[in-house]
Amino acid sequence: MSLAPPRRPALPRLAVRRAGALSIAVAVLAAVVAAAPLLAPHDPAQTDILNRLAAPSWTYPLGTDAMGRCLLSRLLFGARLTICVALLVVLAAAAIGTLVGLTAGTLGGTADRVAMRVVEGVSIFPALAVSLVIAGSLGIGLTSVVIALVAVHWTEYARIVRNMTMVERARPYVMAAHAIGATGPRIVLRHILPNVAGPLLVLGAFSLSFVILAFAGLSFLGLGVEPGTAEWGRMIAEARTHMRTYPRLVLVPGLSIMTFVILVNLMGDALADRWRVDQVLRPRLRKGKPA
Length: 291
Known about the structure:
Elements: H1 13-34, H2 36-39, H3 71-107, H4 109-123, H5 127-138, H6 142-169, H7 172-179, H8 184-220, H9 232-239, H10 248-275, H11 278-281, E1 285-286, E2 289-290
Antiparallel strand pairs: 1-2
């Protein structure tokens, strides 16, 4: 009888193709964002008062804003800033949550109870409200935004990793590793962590979309980046006074946020199909009732 982890069944060909297509789309978007300085026709901070609120043209493909700044250039640089901050938040939250979850799930007992009470204490408050309080207390700036978002997002990783760790501890291959004298850290790093990495990747994909929306929301409220910075949420905030007369100033960054969030969620769905984690990480209806 083999003590190795069970193999997952092969995926349908359609799911594989969808995952590949979404991966290519995300890679293309990442390449565009990375090449923002080369693709942007103008400096995002350069003003041209004589051409303020100009319509789209060859010089300004998406027009200009109220300060005469190129809307396309600000959109590209704003995409790079938003995506980089969102990735930083997700990676930091995942690292903290995974460490806490692995420790609680492996040690159990008092450590597990204390860690889970802390997680429940943080999770009981609305995430956006806590982020607003932390960002407002620390002041305007990227550092404040990152700290505020990490402080509310690490708990979801800790809870899921802790639960999966406790499940993996009962597997035959983990008990076999104990029987041959493997140490606790080796079992965690070589056996448990690789088996929870897939669901963690799925959770990170879904969490990325929420972080992007939260970051844009904080910037829109004036608690994110500094005024004048090219960032999607800040662009919407600066254009709201011209929303009725020049709706494209709001629609361009707003549609960019919507498109990217939808793309990330679709990628999360494809990853969930790959790792068979529907019941764990995404909503699912069972017999007409929420899971």
